[in-house]
Amino acid sequence: MGLARKWRLGLCLGAGLAMAGGSHVARATGASQDEILWDTFGVPHIYATTEAGAFYGFGWAQAHSHGNIVLKLYGTARGRAAEYWGAAEEESDRWVRGNGVYERARTFYARQTPGFRRDLDAFARGINDYAARHPADIADDMRAVLPVSGVDVVAHGLRLMNYVYIAEERKMLGDAPERRAGGSNAWAIAPSRTTDGHAVLLANPHLPWSTPFYTYYEAQLNGPGFSIYGATHVGLPVLRFAFTPDVAFTNTVNTILGAVRYRLTPDGDGYRLDGRKRKFTTRTLSYKVKQPDGTLATHSFVQRYARQGPVFNEADGTPIALYVAGLDRPGMLRQYWDMARSHNFNEFQAALKTLQVPMFNIVYADHDGHVMYLDNGILPKHDSGDFDYWNNTVPGDRSDNIPRGVVSYDSLPKVIDPPSGFVQNANDPPWLATYPRLLDPKAYPAYVAQTGPMTLRAQMSTRMLAGDVKMSFDDIIARKLNTHSLLAERILPELLAAARKDRRTDVKAAVKVLQNWDGADDATSRGTLLFETWARLFMGPKFAGSDGFARQWSLDDPIGTPSGLGDPAHAVNLLAQAAAETRKLYGAIDRPFGDVSRFHINDVDLPGNGGFGNTGIFRTITWGAMKNGERTPLHGETWVSLVSFSTPMQAKGLLSYGNSSQPGSPHHSDQLSYLSSKTLRDLWLRRDVVEQHVESVDPLPD
């Protein structure tokens, strides 16, 4: 039996493994009852004697660290946010109720196995019991949500996955929704590419820092037959980014079209379908709204339903019917639990094949050396049409374009154990999951994903792994923390060559700064702010335009294009403009990057690093606008874990904004120093190691 398996079983039996002269000696842990060991970063290490006990402890822990966020999320998923918090929440309640989120959550809950229902109930009970024992930790305006139930847990997961990620209201009503994903990175590196012959997995999701339903939470769950470390969205009872001694997996947002918007043709009090009038089905729905004086007013609305789904009006009055795939699949939470409980690739694939998770690329590695990329999701099956067609509103007067079924697991793009020895994803389409490319877009329906282009961040991700060089764990860490801009590497030499011929004072000054810049977004870098300002002028406000390049992106040269300056003279004029704007924004064109780019939460204020992913920076930080002389992150580096299935297992990580949002917690900014210094923490896995870093202990009720 290998050390990894011994480590897992030792924890599950309530025993740690201590190293002594190269042997592995079991030691007593004192875990005769369920308890949480809180480490010095506020991470809960939950030890339970039953599976339900681990869920109970996880609910207790989330209430301790993020109680106010959890209750706000659950109240919103009930469609009662306006009842609890006033008229500003009415739009949310109408959307949740119109889509039948809580009613469907009741059905989903009832369809769980009895054992998993007990787990969900235990998670909810842990939240309730913590709030009852620590009432002062819960904000006054959040207490009305208590108590919560297993149905609330399911409802939050349903809302998050299906009505935030897949069919968020602002994306579904209006112009063609922006389906290009934000920023997340994932690597799985096979033993053939590591110096010690062990697989490595990088989990590196990027989401907004201040949006409650996107907040990540770090934890370890130990119970009979499992020891799982990782992170998840606050409010979920399972880890979405997880590793064990046997398997590791992560997610990145993909562009899977799990929802379809149908533009209906009105016909009197109904709509046209297949050449004749159909009547809407209607229901009168109501919700309560808390008034300024604390009283409740009841508001009602009529919700219409077409054959495709519930009907909503766009701003111009156009009726849109919304079809969301997967509303007959109640097992999203259970699938994540089964993925984490897998011991090998076959068991992990069996969990994937249930197709219960509505979206997300899944990247995987294991202790046997397998690596995998899957363009996962519940994707409606269509007879025709490409990605752009189904991403826009489609005609709602024909029943032949209403999906009949979903694309099977076997038909989804995936790469398993490629000759290159790695898979990667940085929110790019699936085709470059490894390099050289193995997947052919023409082998899949045109609506599965766009062919490209591949973003510069995704190209940087691929370039750092491509080739045949074997990497040590430290080498992989260095690549993960790389702040260099691929755009600068690709375009700056040509820009400087053209600019050196220009005699304008601003251009000459800009050339002097940029020729001495190393192309990185580090705190001490001088030139980063100037280049970033130029790049925004050259590529547009989101650094997404490619018209200025001489050569456009091509699937034939996917990590070398776009490239070249289409109009060098214009690019130099933009450099003159950038110099003026940089001086106005930041005070000087060579101001150190970290002077204005700050990791600033509460009393912690440190120099920042990392930059906009679309400039080809792997270490993504999306910086907000200047305010009070600084700019702070809006989005980017959040949870990071980098694990090797070595002996013993190596695990490094970081949760940038800390592991608690509760007022007064010391764990809301205590990891920013690591982010600023471009380092990662050791993740404490074995109980004997955890015990060396205990801040407090919560004995849990029997």
From TrEMBL:
The terms under GO molecular function for this entry are:
hydrolase activity, acting on carbon-nitrogen (but not peptide) bonds, in linear amides
Q: Which residues form a coiled coil?
A: none
Q: Give the UniProt keywords, A-Z.
A: Hydrolase, Signal, Zymogen
Q: Is-annotated flag, keyword Nucleus? A: no
Give the signal peptide, or none.
Answer: 1-20
* GO process annotations (BP): antibiotic biosynthetic process
Q: What InterPro entries does its record include?
A: Ntn_hydrolases_N (IPR029055), Pen/GL7ACA/AHL_acylase (IPR014395), Penicillin_amidase_A-knob (IPR043147), Penicillin_amidase_dom1 (IPR023343), Penicillin_amidase_N_B-knob (IPR043146), S45 (IPR002692)
Q: Which residues form the active site?
A: 184
Q: Which Pfam families match?
A: Penicil_amidase
Record's family?
Belongs to the peptidase S45 family.
Cited PANTHER family: ACYL-HOMOSERINE LACTONE ACYLASE PVDQ (PTHR34218:SF3), PEPTIDASE S45 PENICILLIN AMIDASE (PTHR34218)
Please report the name of this protein according to its UniProt entry: Acylase
Organism whose genome encodes this protein: Komagataeibacter xylinus (Gluconacetobacter xylinus)
